[in-house]
Amino acid sequence: MKKLLVGLFLLTLGASCLIGATAINPFAASPIERDILLSLRLPRVLFSAVIGAMLGLSGSVYQLTLKNPLADSFTTGAASSSALGAVLAIAFGLPVALVPIAALGTGLIGLITVYRLSKTNNVINPVTMILAGVVMNIIASSVISFAKYFFEDALSSIVFWLMGGFFVVDWSKLLLCAAVLLISYLLFTGRALHLNMLALDEHSAQTLGVNVNRLRSIAFVIATALVAVAVSHTGVIGFVGLIVPHVARGLFGSDMKQNLFFSSLLGALLLVLADAVSRSIIPGGAELPVGIITALLGGVFFLYLLRTRRERFWHG
Amino acid sequence: MAELRVSKLHFKRGTFCLALDDITIVQGEKVAILGENGSGKSTLLQLLCGLLSGHGRISYDGRILKNIPVAERALLFALLTQTSEVIFPFSVEEVVRFGRFPHAQGNNFSDEDDELTEHHLNMLDLSALRDRHFSQLSGGEQRRVMLARVLNQKAPIIYLDEPNASLDIRHTLDIFELLTSREETVIAPVHDINLAERFFDRFLLLKRGTLLADVKRDQLTPELLTETYDVQVACGAAAFTFQHQ
């Protein structure tokens, strides 16, 4: 099953390189087409895979550490508060390298505020968390709007960036994101068993020898770093991290040793597909921002979860 | 031998205050904590586990609890919490195997861990449920799964917060017989006085955060219980008594 899925993923990677404004036949490609394939489509497809994996991985960790099946970078407010930091960094004309760092800073502030607000007597209330996340989104969006209004000089670059998607991809961006993904993935898989214990209540996990607060803090920082780096390069792409961990759990069980891998893989698969759709759905070469597609899919999935898990939310 | 010593323990939260002078519990003792709701039973358990910290000194084998790293504590004692949850669909077998976490090397469980997991699944009558998801089980079944996890931890001291909560009478008898026949020290708040009297050999009587008495079974008198619970307790034949068939 694992091999099958990896095979399917690689096939999708290859196939989606051929899709776009013009379909390319790889066996009869002209030199220009070959150039498009290698220097435009391939990095873009790889980039969407890496970003998808980052979002899927962060979602898997958020859902477990926050004990909330509705958690992901978007619903916790982490993505939009990261976006806020990135926008401010752009507005103040900071060097490009500092944009992800500013995003991580505000992303962590946003996430921890939401976490603190939703925790009473050592228990995280999932409903309060979603509400706090929504409000965090609103606050971050309003400050971003203010920045757009106030920093007229930077307006075009902010707007361009906010639209999200994979319009401009180069190998250095791709390498940076892949490196962050790889390091985070290794850090998480090294602690997969520890993370599993967080599925228990806090006291049980603690008496099993897990330093719950420390592990949760580490997980928050790494997961938010994934989100911040992803957001700083592609804007907010919501809900990938919400959907894929559930699908991975349904197919391969909840054990984090499996879930970390499959959430990353399925996240990559989902975003590659969504990007392929966004590149080809409008005839004549125009593109749809990929966030629209993931938000549509994710929104419907969110409603489905809300319906099936409502019992636990209101009584838990 | 794992000896538990508590001296001059003092803990305050809001208007509630728990103070204990001196308790020593030797390896293998079966200690029931009795007291009305809010008398500090669960708080005491959390203090003993280091989940709360108060003033005073708690030590295991002469080592002060505060100085023992969290990972090492899991080899000294295990805790069954009053309520338990497992978020996301983990199977019964997986949850019981969680108990081997303190012994796992790196990211993997050993063959011994698997054998012990198997052993404890059988011991608590859970083999038939092994592939079911924890959240799909009834309250009593969930309780047994958590108990299996706690025993699977193989710690010399076991803390059980109301071990028979939501268990039927047959499983209650099973579990109390099982627990009290083992070598581990068992320390448990228990609400059912008759069951406590039958299975435990030492009793800590708590009232509003103070230790009213620390007695052996033969010293557990109706007068003492009357004072503990503020209800008239008399000794007589119960309406029903329970034995295994």
Question: Could you outline the blueprint of secondary structure elements for this entry?
Answer:
The complex is a heterodimer of chains A (316) and B (245).
Chain A (H helix, E strand, L loop, with lengths): L1 H17 L12 H35 L12 H14 L7 H20 E2 L2 E2 L1 H25 L4 H8 L8 H19 L2 H6 L4 H6 L4 H23 L5 H13 L3 H25 L9 H26 L1
Antiparallel strand pairs in A: 1-2
Helix pairs in contact in A: 1-2, 1-12, 2-7, 2-10, 2-11, 2-12, 3-4, 3-5, 3-6, 3-10, 4-5, 4-10, 7-10, 11-12
Chain B lengths: L3 E10 L2 E10 L4 E5 L6 H8 L6 E6 L2 E2 L5 H7 E4 L11 H7 L12 H13 L15 H14 L4 E4 L8 H12 L4 E5 L3 H7 L2 E6 L2 E7 L5 H8 L16
Parallel strand pairs in B: 3-8, 3-9, 6-7, 7-8
Antiparallel strand pairs in B: 1-2, 1-4, 4-5, 9-10
From the spread of the alpha carbons, the general shape of chain A counts as globular
Distance between the termini of chain A: 34 Å
- Number of distinct helices of chain A: 13
Question: Secondary-structure element sequence of chain B?
Answer: EEEHEEHEHHHEHEHEEH
Q: What is the assigned CATH homologous superfamily of the domain at 4-83 and 155-229 in chain B?
A: P-loop containing nucleotide triphosphate hydrolases
The overall pLDDT of chain A, averaged over residues, is 87
Structural class of chain B: alpha/beta
CATH H-level homologous superfamily name of chain A: ABC transporter involved in vitamin B12 uptake, BtuC
The first-level CATH class name of chain A: Mainly Alpha
Q: Approximately what portion of the residues of chain B adopt beta-strand conformation?
A: 15-25%
